[in-house]
DNA sequence: CTGGGGAAGGGGCCC
DNA sequence: TGGGCCCCTTCCCCA
């Protein structure tokens, strides 16, 4: 009974999104559940606020502002959009509900203007791309040289999408439902509210587009400046979508729910191209929102997510979602599946799906009975090499991972970490001193007869080290005052002082205890525990674990200091 | 709380 | 250059 068999199984329904849209479109056509009516020069278009908010940054922000204003966002609204030509508005609505933009070429500019006004960036891009073949060509010939020499910095900000969009969006025109370069979507100003109904939000946004027809160019200019002004803002997943622009909102919600594999696949290979294609929309979206501020990161992202751009096999590559640096050629698609939840590799025997082919391969061993890792000391066989490794530690009795605090040893590092994260370690610490200064562990006999009078014995030093890790400097300095060198915790080394100090220890939370890396490490150096005795097959491991721990302590300390500075 | 099994995810190496 | 394979770490779950 493996978790994979009884755990959650993601069953994709590739047609769901299409069906959902189709039903919504039916509702729109029949007026069912429509809570928003768009008007343009007398024409009326019933629609749904949620759909418009999903597809249009303009409405998303507008409704977000309304709800933020306390109105709750409910009720029926009429939105006057005289600045958008009826045909263009109709086309945009059709797009919103069908993911397909159907427009005559003569109406392209109207649609472009409407898309820009409403913040439907993918449509705007597609229209601009089509129109731009002629328009931009003229502009580019005039400014080509100047751009090359003077706009380097700006191009760095924009080029990941812009530079490659030319050739790739030709393909994407058919996939217009996909998201896009949102270079001009980022941090746009909330459009003037065209709402005819009265609301607190609309009060502050009263100027109607119909009375102030927007000029797409100034709008874009403004938006671009917004992006350049603070590109980092959009890289922080925790920020509010309203603040950072809509695509982030989509990004955060779509991967888990709306990206089934293009077609049901079973045990098929997932090539890099498959990955890129299958992530197509998201990849573009991810790329569009995740332009890091640093030049290095920009380069990494540009190599990864430029829409349609053949990804340069640069390693490391930065994940546009979590910003994590992924090392290794071809590893980014693999990593991306951790965000999308896509599991293209399905077990033909039990149907369990996996994100990776190699995991499926290992899984198949359960069905074939193959256990390629036999224990040389017993009949046990294992599925994984690391299982055998763990198992061998049982035979050898080796417990190379020792808690530096309580000296409890573990065969596995993760068990040590679990031990550290729990409270058991602290409890052991608090109990130990009660056993008296000799503190000789079972069978140690190191204390002999003179443990009590020999504060420099191994155990005594160990206790000092143990305790010194968790004591505030004031307590430590009470011993020697200077704080230089290994701290002498207990100036008089009396039983009472130990007890009091360790009682204080017990009252410190673990996060507080981590704030004294210096003395902690010095304490470790004094440690004379099991590591110094007998076999230590994992001595290097223990040291490595200690180093890692030290790093963590330092990090914790940094956090602590940061908090205190606040 | 600990020991053990298993899965997920990342990185290295090789082809 | 990318995929396959392997190893490793970390986490979760169960007994």
UniProtKB/TrEMBL annotation:
<dbReference type="InterPro" id="IPR050457">
    <property type="entry name" value="ZnFinger_BTB_dom_contain"/>
</dbReference>
<dbReference type="InterPro" id="IPR000210">
    <property type="entry name" value="BTB/POZ_dom"/>
</dbReference>
<feature type="domain" description="C2H2-type">
    <location>
        <begin position="401"/>
        <end position="424"/>
    </location>
</feature>
<dbReference type="Pfam" id="PF00651">
    <property type="entry name" value="BTB"/>
</dbReference>
<feature type="compositionally biased region" description="Basic residues">
    <location>
        <begin position="164"/>
        <end position="178"/>
    </location>
</feature>
<feature type="domain" description="BTB">
    <location>
        <begin position="34"/>
        <end position="105"/>
    </location>
</feature>
<feature type="region of interest" description="Disordered">
    <location>
        <begin position="138"/>
        <end position="275"/>
    </location>
</feature>
<feature type="compositionally biased region" description="Low complexity">
    <location>
        <begin position="193"/>
        <end position="204"/>
    </location>
</feature>
<dbReference type="GO" id="GO:0010628">
    <property type="term" value="P:positive regulation of gene expression"/>
</dbReference>
<dbReference type="GO" id="GO:0008270">
    <property type="term" value="F:zinc ion binding"/>
</dbReference>
<dbReference type="InterPro" id="IPR036236">
    <property type="entry name" value="Znf_C2H2_sf"/>
</dbReference>
<dbReference type="Pfam" id="PF00096">
    <property type="entry name" value="zf-C2H2"/>
</dbReference>
<feature type="region of interest" description="Disordered">
    <location>
        <begin position="417"/>
        <end position="457"/>
    </location>
</feature>
<keyword id="KW-0862">Zinc</keyword>
<keyword id="KW-0677">Repeat</keyword>
<dbReference type="GO" id="GO:0032502">
    <property type="term" value="P:developmental process"/>
</dbReference>
<feature type="domain" description="C2H2-type">
    <location>
        <begin position="345"/>
        <end position="372"/>
    </location>
</feature>
<dbReference type="GO" id="GO:0000978">
    <property type="term" value="F:RNA polymerase II cis-regulatory region sequence-specific DNA binding"/>
</dbReference>
<feature type="compositionally biased region" description="Acidic residues">
    <location>
        <begin position="552"/>
        <end position="566"/>
    </location>
</feature>
<feature type="domain" description="C2H2-type">
    <location>
        <begin position="317"/>
        <end position="344"/>
    </location>
</feature>
<feature type="region of interest" description="Disordered">
    <location>
        <begin position="529"/>
        <end position="566"/>
    </location>
</feature>
<keyword id="KW-0479">Metal-binding</keyword>
<keyword id="KW-0863">Zinc-finger</keyword>
<feature type="domain" description="C2H2-type">
    <location>
        <begin position="373"/>
        <end position="400"/>
    </location>
</feature>
<protein>
    <submittedName>
        <fullName>Zinc finger and BTB domain-containing protein 7B-like</fullName>
    </submittedName>
</protein>
<dbReference type="GO" id="GO:0000981">
    <property type="term" value="F:DNA-binding transcription factor activity, RNA polymerase II-specific"/>
</dbReference>
<dbReference type="InterPro" id="IPR011333">
    <property type="entry name" value="SKP1/BTB/POZ_sf"/>
</dbReference>
<feature type="compositionally biased region" description="Basic and acidic residues">
    <location>
        <begin position="424"/>
        <end position="445"/>
    </location>
</feature>
<dbReference type="InterPro" id="IPR013087">
    <property type="entry name" value="Znf_C2H2_type"/>
</dbReference>
